[in-house]
User: Fold these one by one.
Assistant:
Number 1:
Amino acid sequence: MSSEPSFTIPAHPERHFPRRGALEYEGETVFRLTPESDLTGPDLESLVETVLADGPYRAGDFLELPLALWLVRDDDTADVFRVSIRDGSVRLHVLPSTESAGLRRFYDRLVDSSGCDWRVRCRTDLA
C-alpha cells in the first residue's frame, strides 16, 4: 500500500455564464494540503510563490482579496487550477478541466521545496 496521497478528482465544478456577464461555478472540489510542521500563513505564501517561480507555471495573483489566491497553469500538463492559502493550509481548487496530474506535480514540488510531510484531504461539494 502506498502512502502517497491520491489526487483523484471525484467531481468537477460546472462552469456557467449568467446573463449578467459574470462567470460562476456550480460545485466545488478542493484538495487541502496541511504541513506537518510549524509553517505559518506568511511562510506558506512564500513557499507557494517559490514553487510557482521555479516553474513550469504561469500564475497570476488576485490582489485586493483578504487571502492569497493564484490562478495557476502548469505548462507541462496544461492543467489550470486555483491555489489559495487559508487556515494554515494550501488549497488546490479544481476547475472544470483540471486533471489529477497537474495537482500531483504541484504537491510533489511543494513537498520538495518545504522539506516536510503534508496531510492531504479532499472535499467535494456538489451544487
Number 2:
Amino acid sequence: MAKNKFSERKLILFTLGIIILSGIVRLISYSVGVWMFYLSFSPFIFYRLIYYLRNRGKLSKSDKYRRYTMMVIMLTIVLKVLGFQDGEFILLFVLGIDYLIIVQNPRKVNG
C-alpha cells in the first residue's frame, strides 16, 4: 500500500485558514484571537519538525532554507511568549517566504 504524502502547500493553506479564523475571533475577543493566531502555526511547526527528524541526511538545499524560515517562526513565537516583541507581520512574511521556496522547487520539497 502506498504512503499518502501530505502536500506542504496544503499545510500552508491550512495554516492560513486558521490565521483567518483567528482574525475573525480577534474581532470578538482580542486576547483569544491573539493567542489563536500564534497557535495557528503549531501544525506547520510540528509537521516540519517531524519531517526533519525523519529525513536527517536526505535534505535538499531548499529544505535547508526552509529550516531557517522555521527557526525564525519559532524564535518569533518564543519572543512573543516571553514578552519581548509583537511580531504578527514577521510571521506572515516568513510564512510567505516559505511558500515561495515551495513554489520555486515543487519536486524537491513536497515530501
